[in-house]
Amino acid sequence: MTDSTLLVADDHPLFRAALIQVLHERFPQFRTLEAASAQTLGAALKEHPEIELVLLDLAMPGARGFSSLLHVRGEYPEIPVVVISSNEHPRVIRRAQQFGAAGFIPKSSSADDMAAAIQNVLDGDLSFPHTDAETSQADADLAARLAQLTPQQFRVLMCLADGLLNKQIAHELGLAENTVKVHVTAILKKLECYSRTQAAVLVKSLEPESGV
């Protein structure tokens, strides 16, 4: 039987190593896996169905703000995600919650606090620092529209946001160019966008107001 696994997705090797050390000490019953980019995060989730929790940094190569969180929640809704970030702004914490995270851990947290938050989420609870930031109807609407996208459409959208042409997207994702055209049409309709540029601006709104 495959061991239960925790996935640490963070592009900073030193922090990743420190967090994994905490996991080994506090949660020895779990295996740990690492990912350092949005691409390796997706590959790990696809290859390891035994993953029970993702610890996710927002600022990784290939990610745009909350895009990785939304992608994981859309493709693997049964796997809880805890955002771990150096950006502790109340608005960032609130947006993580609205976009489907099960918890938020500031990177400045002590090992004890990190372990407690992780245990809460593993127990089926939510774990967020107190924040006075209000929920945003715009974020709720955005999350609802993005939730309509299939995983493949979400990947195409990220390529659109990078300014890639259909031919380039087809090469990047291993798709036929006509298939990409069909996806783009569906994406614009679901997101209620009139152009590729408008869709790219929408993706940009996923980025926190300040750096993470």
UniProtKB/TrEMBL annotation:
The modification 4-aspartylphosphate is found at residue 57. CDD domains: LuxR_C_like (cd06170), REC_NarL-like (cd17535). It comes from the Bacteria. Keywords: DNA-binding, Phosphoprotein. Residues 5-122 form the Response regulatory domain. InterPro entries: CheY-like_superfamily, EvgA-like, NreC/VraR/RcsB-like_REC, Sig_transdc_resp-reg_C-effctor, Sig_transdc_resp-reg_receiver, Tscrpt_reg_LuxR_C, WH-like_DNA-bd_sf. GO terms for molecular function: DNA binding. Residues 142-207 form the HTH luxR-type domain. GO terms for biological process: phosphorelay signal transduction system; regulation of DNA-templated transcription. This is Response regulator transcription factor.
